[in-house]
Amino acid sequence: MSEIKLENLKKSFGKTEVIHDLSIDVKDGELIVIVGPSGCGKSTLLRMVAGLEDANQGNILIDGKQVNELEPMERNIAMVFQNYALYPHMTVFENMAYGLKIAKIPKEEINSRVQKAADILELGQLLERKPNQLSGGQRQRVAMGRAIVRNPVAFLFDEPLSNLDAKLRVQMRLEIKKLQTQLKTTSLYVTHDQVEAMTLADRMIVMNQGNVEHIGTPLEVYTKPKTLFTAQFIGSPAMNIFSGDCQKGQIILSNGTTLKTNSNHSGKLNVGLRPEDFIMDDKGSIKLKVELVELIGANTLIHGKLENSNEVLVASIAGVINEDKIGKNINLAFKDDKLHLFNANTNLRIN
Amino acid sequence: MKKRVIFKGWWLPALLVAPQLVISFLFFFYPSGQALWNSLFLPDPFGLKTEFVGLDNFKFLLTDPYYLASFKTTIFFSTAVSFFSMAIGLYLAALADRLIKGAGIYQTLLIWPYAIAPAIAGVLWLFLFNGNIGLVSYYLKGLGYEWNHTLNGDEAMFLVILASTWGRISYNFLFFLAGLQAIPKSVIEAAAIDGASFWKRFFTIVIPLLSPITFFLLVVNIVYAFFDTFGVIHTITSGGPEQSTTILVYKVFSDGFVSQDLGSSAAQSVILLLVVGVLTVIQFKYIERKVHY
Amino acid sequence: MVEKKKSAYWLTHAGLIIGVLFIFFPVWLTFVASTVNQEEIINPPLPLWPGTEMFENYYHALFKGGREGYGSNEPVINMLINSSIMALGITIGKITISLLSAFAIVYFRFPFRKTCFWLIFMTLMLPVEVRIVPTYEVVANLNLLNSYTGLIFPLIASATATFLFRQFFMTIPDEMVEAARMDGCSPMRFFKDILIPISKTNIAALFVILFIYGWNQYLWPLLMTTDPDMKTIVIALDAMIPAGDDFAHWPTVMATAVLAMLPPIAVVIGMQKFFVKGLLESDK
Question: Considering only CA atoms, which of B122, B106, B94, B109 is closest in space to residue B229?
Answer without folding.
Answer: B122
